[in-house]
Specification:
three-stranded antiparallel beta sheet, 177 residues, 47% helix, mainly alpha
Length: 177
């Protein structure tokens, strides 16, 4: 239900004074191809970007990456719609699981990502310690939020089969429940 509004689309001045970077990597699971787009309306900014890309030897994509990028953008719409639906259902599953089994740990609202934040501040323990315990005791590897959203939050990736998510959540409950 959320719509992204690019900064460069707000008006002509913002377009001229901005650079927009996009990539199909996470959306279409092709990060290994290392394909991205840099969009700059201003010719001088574009020239500077091109110069840096060439100087740092980052200017050439392999042919497979180009074809994959084109296919993803031109033919991946239906697949992406299904993926977003599946991810939303995973989010609902996770949110309901925490509501039922770990109600002291609120789940933040999900918006435009497959990474869910869980507020663990009621545990009164450093999230680095919680994440280490989850990994050591139940082999669940999740990120503590210190480097992303702040101390007290854990980040859970829901871009996986529901069965995997359910198993991971049960393991989390064993440690935190």
């Amino acid at each position: 239900g959320h719509r992204h509004i690019p900064f460069a689309s707000l008006n002509e001045e913002f377009l001229r004074h901005s650079v927009t970077c996009t990539a199909p990597s996470k959306t279409f699971n092709i990060a290994g191809l290392q394909a991205a787009n840099i969009i700059a309306a201003d010719p001088e900014i574009r020239r500077k970007i091109d110069r840096q890309l060439v100087d740092n030897e980052l200017h050439a994509l392999n042919a497979f990456a180009v074809e994959a990028l084109i296919a993803a953008y031109n033919e991946g719409g239906e697949w992406l719609d299904e993926l977003k639906k599946y991810l939303w259902e995973n989010y609902e599953y996770l949110r309901d699981f925490f509501t039922r089994h770990l109600p002291a740990l609120p789940v933040t609202p999900l918006e435009a990502t497959y990474l869910v934040w869980v507020d663990c501040r009621t545990l009164k323990r450093p999230t680095t310690e919680i994440a280490r315990q989850l990994l050591e005791e139940e082999h669940v590897w999740i990120n503590e939020g210190e480097m992303y959203a702040g101390e007290g939050f854990l980040r859970i990736n829901i871009a996986c089969p529901r069965k995997t998510l359910a198993e991971g959540l049960e393991r989390i409950r064993k440690v935190l429940g």
